Amino acid sequence: MLSLAFLLFLALLQTPVTQASSSATSTVALNMAAEAAAKLYFGTATDNPELTDTSYVTILKNTAMFGQLTPANSMKWDAIEPEQNVFSFTGGDQIVTLAEATGKIMRGHNLVWYSQLPNWVTYGSWTPETLTSVIETHVRTEVSHYAGKIYAWDVINEPFNDDGTMRADVFYSTLNTSYISIALRTARAADPKAKLYINDYNLEYTGPKIDAMVRLVEDLLAAGVPIHGIGFQGHFILGEVSPSQLQTNMERFTALGLEVAVTELDVRIELPVTDADLEQQKADYMSVVQTCRVVSGCVGVTVWDYTDKYSWISSTFPGYGAACPWDANLDRKPAYDGIAMGFTEYTT
Ligand code: G3I
């Protein structure tokens, strides 16, 4: 029979991704903290395969903790319209049903993006007219299906390169920037109450990308195109949050009458993780949430899944991980306290 000591020895052999041991102490529920700070929500991304994990779902369903959901994959083009005019809403519906049953706000993610785009769109032989029709059909059908159930749509996702030029995907190559107004106007007609967003990463810093996004929004507003919000994805590397730049950049849009949101927050750490890293991560989460708190037009913060168990980071950035506020065992990390402090304490 295996002795307890031997079993412990075997457990220790499992290579830890963390050498850290500190955990959260806050007793504040995060969506309640967000609402107390006059925000609409604190939320999380989730994905359909995870919904069979009962421990994960128990935390996810707690609306004191999460007041908003974003589907990480199941509302994207490849999931919704894998073949032309063949629509499948099963995955998206499952998450909307969960949100409705637990009283959570939904963000729709996303309608027009170069990635997770089926080959029939990416490699089609389009004229401006035929691609316009494809965009209109996709956006109208998806937004109509969910009309009345979605607080905000990421209508356009990641349109810019980091140097501020437009990403040369099939949409831009065929239609120049007009694909953006085509999608926004179509979404508006299909659900007049939904907030329409453009969502991108690396908007958190000063530089050509944020300047390009501001110019785009000014052009859209001048042309009377419906645009209501900008999503700051917020995929940070440990120690690289600049709250002053983030606040300045958010306020460039709120000054134009738009709202903003932190839509995909995580803070990735180079492995192995130390206690000092977790303290820095706590400070980073606090800075971002506090910035949203003090910008009155920032409506809420969404983490890009709440647990390291289901984070996208390790598969995309080898050697990095531990980016979420809950660890892979679903225990809260110091980052949790950082989020709670960001919503509840005013410090500058
Ligand atoms: O659906 C297939 C499945 O059939 C197959 O068996 C499996 C094998 O790997 O892959 C599955 O597709 C994966 C998909 O997630 C669904 O799980 C893709 O390989 C994988 O690349 C994809 O990753 C997603 C990523 O977007 C793609 O860019 C992540 O889960 C998702 O979290 C991530 O989310 C994006 C936001 O939409 C936009 N901003 C950046 C963010 C992080 O990349």
In short:
The chain has 348 residues and is α/β, with parallel strands linked by helices. It has a single domain, classed as TIM Barrel. It has 14 helices and 10 strands.
Label this structure with key terms.
348 residues; alpha/beta; TIM Barrel; eight-stranded parallel barrel; 14 helices; 10 strands; globular; binds ligand G3I
What does this protein look like?
The chain is α/β, with parallel strands linked by helices and 348 residues long. The chain has one domain (32-342): Alpha-Beta Barrel (TIM Barrel), CATH 3.20.20. Helices cover 41% and strands 16% of the residues. The protein contains 14 helices and ten strands. The protein has helices at residues 4-13, 30-36, 54-61, 77-80, 90-101, 119-122, 128-145, 170-175, 178-190, 208-222, 243-254, 275-294, 313-316, 334-344, and strands at 41-46, 68-71, 105-112, 152-157, 195-200, 229-232, 235-237, 259-270, 298-303, 320-321. An eight-stranded parallel barrel has the order 1-2-3-4-5-6-8-9, surrounded by six helices. Helix 2 runs parallel beside helix 14 and helix 12 packs parallel to helix 14 (334-344). The protein is globular and about 60 Å long. Mean pLDDT is 94; it is low at 1-16. Bound molecules: ligand G3I.
